[in-house]
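Long-time lurker. I teach an intro course on protein structure, and each term I like to show students one example going from raw sequence to a predicted 3D structure in token notation. This year I'd like something fresh instead of my usual example. Would anyone be willing to generate the tokens for the chain below so I can use it in lecture? Attribution to the forum is fine with me.
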Amino acid sequence: MDFLLTGLMQLADPWLAGVMVFGAILGVVVGAIPGAGAAVTISILLPSTFGMDPLSGMTLLLGVYCGSAYGSAIPAVLLNTPGSPVAVLTALEAKPFADRGEARRAMSLAYSSSFVGGVLAVLALMLLTKPLALIAKNFGSAEFAMLAISALVLVVVGHTGRRLEAMAALAFGLFLATVGIETAFSTQRYTFGQTWLLQGIPLVPLVIGLFAMSEALVQLTGPGGRSKEVPLAGRFFDGFLEVLKYPRTLFGSSFVGIIIGIMPGVGEFLAQQVNYVWARKLSPEGHLFGKGSPEGIIVSEATNNAVPPAALIPMLALGIPGEELTAMMLAVFLVHNVIPGPDLFINRPEFVAGLYWTLLVMNFVIIIFLMFATKWIAKAALVDKRFLGVTILTLSLIGTYASNYNFSDVGIAMFFGLLGYILRSHLWPLTPLLLGLVMGPIVEGRLRQALGGANGDLGIFVARPISAIIVGALSLLIILSVRDSLKNRKSRAAWQINES
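-- Reply from a regular --
Happy to contribute to a lecture. Here you go:
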């Protein structure tokens, strides 16, 4: 109890409260702008958080993270354009509502579902993270090495239909992680005599280039112009209590979103797809899914908002980021020498408790703000895409240089911006590349410790019970994934033969 009270007292700090409100509102606004979104905004804001205290910096980024999940429903309902890729199902279900003049009802369904999913996920974060960290206190290097490798495997497996591309991007990210001075023997790797590569590939320029600059290039090279807005018709509060008519869908989707969110490398898109399929099968009104079903909106939005807080559980408890945004936030931890993992609850309990309460209160701030400001936020979704691209590119260049006042960082960001644009153009996932760079040192360090303690004997990974269980589970997962991929390939080949 004292642990949670310590965190609650920190909310009395006007600076922290102001950062929380600003981050939440900014997240809602950028979430409402198709093409902006959390990844782009967080990558631009990342350098500015290095001058803040750790809690304020993380609160700002988490505000953008959570707020954008709410805001992405606005263009999905009003423009039939998802504010982020995970709002596709919301756009699908909301269009019939808008056509019937019930846009406000669809919006309130989305908001209330998001609120329930977000609050339940924060409560799960409060309840599960510390026990998981206490369990992890008994882990050795072998267990942590296998957990880190599990995250990498799940990153690939989670990209159904794009697993080969995800594997290639992950491998490139792991290669980038080896650039610089190797810590064990202080030898240079892949520096080619360039002093600016001695410290490795810097994370901030890579993040800004890969996510922000590449998105700016997408906006600049795509068709410009403004989208046509759907009138915000209907009664706004119609859907707030309507979600309670579907408790199984609401709470079931939130629960599954939390479980999948905890799994490193999976993310909200897969969680949403799994929830949507099962909700349609189990619902008595399953035939209405895709035709303007309230349950369809509930599934999509409850899942989207349950995943972000849940994704923090493995990062705080184990030091393993679950997806691209928590990988970006890991930079804030490292800059301030705050090491996530089991010892975090011993060394910095006030920091963890502060995160808990800011995340919880943030959901209330966002829902109250949306009740009164949706009409004006909706205008942000109409911004010209080319103007948005120029703005993102300008802020990216400024943020990259300001992070270290080094022109080589700007060059690195521009290189990865172009690379990210090419990858996006060919529908390659960007997340595995970032996670490869972030997880590479963790995997290498833990493997070296485990093998060093066992005199190079690989049997150490099956000799310890927990590590052996992880090895067995990973082996089964890989076998099932390969079988699934081969089965899908045969099905596509048979379909093509029949068509010809």
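Some talking points for your students: The first strand starts at residue 180 and ends at 182. The two ends are 68 Å apart (CA to CA).
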